[in-house]
């Protein structure tokens, strides 16, 4: 009896719904954006470009150029962080676009190393700017402050703090099937009709113990990323490089204009790459707990994908902006290609690739040692 | 310098390992509710429900009612929502008890 009464009441609501079908009264779960493979293709391009650039930097340091200044040590570390990042990037994107097929270990590893590399890369770039500041602005003190020993200690501190800052990411990313995709059916009248429109899919996302942890951590993780992974390095860079530019402008050196230009490009590219993503991250963090229409969620998601990709590109640009912009580095690079070319002529035809690389490294290192000179990588 | 090469090798190996453990699965939407319906679904049309919890991927909690006409995102803070869930549970228990008698 009661049931029919209520059903009658609800038929009215039902008809209401019929009329207001498109209106905002009825909210459905938001459909996820299309599984677009463009993202995967772009991540592969970033991966390849970043791999070439950063491994060239690493190879140059490993075989041709000893790390002589603090900036050299930092640059090598940035290249390692970037290389790890770009290698893991297509894997992460592939997993995000499919239903995270690589399982729980890959979930924790990929999310965690993403965070570690992000922090270490950003903090190391700040270290480079500080080193250049000391070298140029505080030139008198630079002999005392700039030693390889220091830079190795600082790099280690950066890596350790990057790992510490990533602990929440390691902790809270889990591989699981979200409960909201699992339907608890009550009405089994026509089971055939219950098409498996969506099987539960695994995700690698946040999972918390309780609501309080959920709400704090959801705000805390992006806030720390914004503060230490973006604003802190940006402020350090802006401060250091402005001082550097002011000092350079005073100097009477015919190359100063080029130096100023390079410094400006480094800062501007950093801001162009990272500012849009961090703004969307901030917007997302602020609006996360508010009710949002699916359109705005979709727009935010698209914006985030685009700005994230721009931020990722920075990893490919770092080798160019920091390493290959230097004359010495370019000379080393030329040497690498020359050596490869010579080796190709000498070895590939009779012996193929097998042992050529290791021999090349030995021979070129000897030849380089004689002609090398000391100096910072900050030479244009 | 040996460590750099070793690091590269480890990275390559790790990538390879991760790639080989790849199993295929179709992609379906994460389909979170981001806002709540202001209207109730008619109870007799409900065929099931899902629980969306803020402790998981989606940032807000919701109860999703699956009806023949579509899905309704409902605010779990509202009393009628929990009432509906309770009634659905009772309905399920009834089915369960009936099938035990057979």
TrEMBL record, chain A:
<keyword id="KW-0325">Glycoprotein</keyword>
<feature type="transmembrane region" description="Helical">
    <location>
        <begin position="114"/>
        <end position="135"/>
    </location>
</feature>
<keyword id="KW-0675">Receptor</keyword>
<dbReference type="InterPro" id="IPR000355">
    <property type="entry name" value="Chemokine_rcpt"/>
</dbReference>
<keyword id="KW-1133">Transmembrane helix</keyword>
<keyword id="KW-0812">Transmembrane</keyword>
<dbReference type="GO" id="GO:0006955">
    <property type="term" value="P:immune response"/>
</dbReference>
<dbReference type="InterPro" id="IPR050119">
    <property type="entry name" value="CCR1-9-like"/>
</dbReference>
<feature type="transmembrane region" description="Helical">
    <location>
        <begin position="309"/>
        <end position="327"/>
    </location>
</feature>
<feature type="domain" description="G-protein coupled receptors family 1 profile">
    <location>
        <begin position="53"/>
        <end position="322"/>
    </location>
</feature>
<dbReference type="GO" id="GO:0016493">
    <property type="term" value="F:C-C chemokine receptor activity"/>
</dbReference>
<feature type="transmembrane region" description="Helical">
    <location>
        <begin position="156"/>
        <end position="176"/>
    </location>
</feature>
<dbReference type="GO" id="GO:0007204">
    <property type="term" value="P:positive regulation of cytosolic calcium ion concentration"/>
</dbReference>
<dbReference type="InterPro" id="IPR017452">
    <property type="entry name" value="GPCR_Rhodpsn_7TM"/>
</dbReference>
<feature type="transmembrane region" description="Helical">
    <location>
        <begin position="260"/>
        <end position="279"/>
    </location>
</feature>
<dbReference type="GO" id="GO:0019957">
    <property type="term" value="F:C-C chemokine binding"/>
</dbReference>
<keyword id="KW-0472">Membrane</keyword>
<dbReference type="Pfam" id="PF00001">
    <property type="entry name" value="7tm_1"/>
</dbReference>
<dbReference type="InterPro" id="IPR000276">
    <property type="entry name" value="GPCR_Rhodpsn"/>
</dbReference>
<dbReference type="GO" id="GO:0019722">
    <property type="term" value="P:calcium-mediated signaling"/>
</dbReference>
<keyword id="KW-0297">G-protein coupled receptor</keyword>
<comment type="similarity">
    <text>Belongs to the G-protein coupled receptor 1 family.</text>
</comment>
From TrEMBL, chain B:
<keyword id="KW-0732">Signal</keyword>
<dbReference type="InterPro" id="IPR036048">
    <property type="entry name" value="Interleukin_8-like_sf"/>
</dbReference>
<dbReference type="GO" id="GO:0008009">
    <property type="term" value="F:chemokine activity"/>
</dbReference>
<feature type="domain" description="Chemokine interleukin-8-like">
    <location>
        <begin position="29"/>
        <end position="88"/>
    </location>
</feature>
<protein>
    <submittedName>
        <fullName>C-C motif chemokine 20a.3</fullName>
    </submittedName>
</protein>
<dbReference type="GO" id="GO:0006955">
    <property type="term" value="P:immune response"/>
</dbReference>
<dbReference type="InterPro" id="IPR001811">
    <property type="entry name" value="Chemokine_IL8-like_dom"/>
</dbReference>
<dbReference type="GO" id="GO:0005615">
    <property type="term" value="C:extracellular space"/>
</dbReference>
<feature type="signal peptide">
    <location>
        <begin position="1"/>
        <end position="25"/>
    </location>
</feature>
<dbReference type="InterPro" id="IPR039809">
    <property type="entry name" value="Chemokine_b/g/d"/>
</dbReference>
<dbReference type="Pfam" id="PF00048">
    <property type="entry name" value="IL8"/>
</dbReference>
<keyword id="KW-0202">Cytokine</keyword>
């Amino acid at each position: 009896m009661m049931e029919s009464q209520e059903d009658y009441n609800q038929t009215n609501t039902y008809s209401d719904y019929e009329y207001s079908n498109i209106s905002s009264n009825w909210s459905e779960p938001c459909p996820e954006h299309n599984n677009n493979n463009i993202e995967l293709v772009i991540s592969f391009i970033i991966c390849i470009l970043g791999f070439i650039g950063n491994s060239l930097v690493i190879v140059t340091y490993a075989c041709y150029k000893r790390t002589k200044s603090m900036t050299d040590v930092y640059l090598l570390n940035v290249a390692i962080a970037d290389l790890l990042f770009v290698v893991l990037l297509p894997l992460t994107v592939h997993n995000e676009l499919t239903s995270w097929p690589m399982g729980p270990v890959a979930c924790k590893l990929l999310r965690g190393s993403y965070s570690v590399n992000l922090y270490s890369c950003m903090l190391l770039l700040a270290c480079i700017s500080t080193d250049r500041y000391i070298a140029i602005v505080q030139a008198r003190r630079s002999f005392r402050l700039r030693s390889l020993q220091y830079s190795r200690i600082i790099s280690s501190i950066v890596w350790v703090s990057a790992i510490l800052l990533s602990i929440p990411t390691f902790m809270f990313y889990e591989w699981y099937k979200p409960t909201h995709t699992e339907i608890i059916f009550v009405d089994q009248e026509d089971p055939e009709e219950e098409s498996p429109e969506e099987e539960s899919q695994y995700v690698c996302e946040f999972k918390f113990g309780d609501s309080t942890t959920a709400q704090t951590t959801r705000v805390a993780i992006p806030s720390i990323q914004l503060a230490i992974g973006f604003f802190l390095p940006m402020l350090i860079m802006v401060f250091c490089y402005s001082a550097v530019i002011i000092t350079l402008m005073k100097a009477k050196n015919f190359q100063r204009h080029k130096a100023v230009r390079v410094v400006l490009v480094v800062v501007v590219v950093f801001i162009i790459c990272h500012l849009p993503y961090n703004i969307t991250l901030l917007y997302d963090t602020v609006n996360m707990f508010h009710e949002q229409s699916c359109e705005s969620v979709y727009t935010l998601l698209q914006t985030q994908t685009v700005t994230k990709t721009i931020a990722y590109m920075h990893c490919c640009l770092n080798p160019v902006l920091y390493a290959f912009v230097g004359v010495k580095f370019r000379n080393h690079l030329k040497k690498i290609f020359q050596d490869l070319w010579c080796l190709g002529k000498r070895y590939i035809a009779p012996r193929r690739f097998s042992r050529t690389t290791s021999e090349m490294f030995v021979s070129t290192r000897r030849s380089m040692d004689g002609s090398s000179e000391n100096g910072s990588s900050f030479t244009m | 310098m040996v460590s750099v090469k070793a690091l590269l090798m480890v990275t390559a190996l790790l990538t390879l390992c991760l790639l080989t453990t790849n199993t295929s699965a179709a992609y379906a939407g994460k389909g979170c509710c981001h806002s709540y319906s202001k209207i109730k679904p008619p109870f007799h049309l409900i065929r099931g429900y899902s629980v969306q919890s803020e402790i998981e991927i989606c940032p807000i909690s919701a109860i999703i009612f699956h009806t023949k006409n579509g899905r309704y995102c409902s605010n779990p803070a509202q009393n009628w929502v929990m009432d509906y869930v309770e009634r659905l549970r009772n309905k399920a228990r009834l089915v369960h008890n009936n099938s035990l008698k057979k």
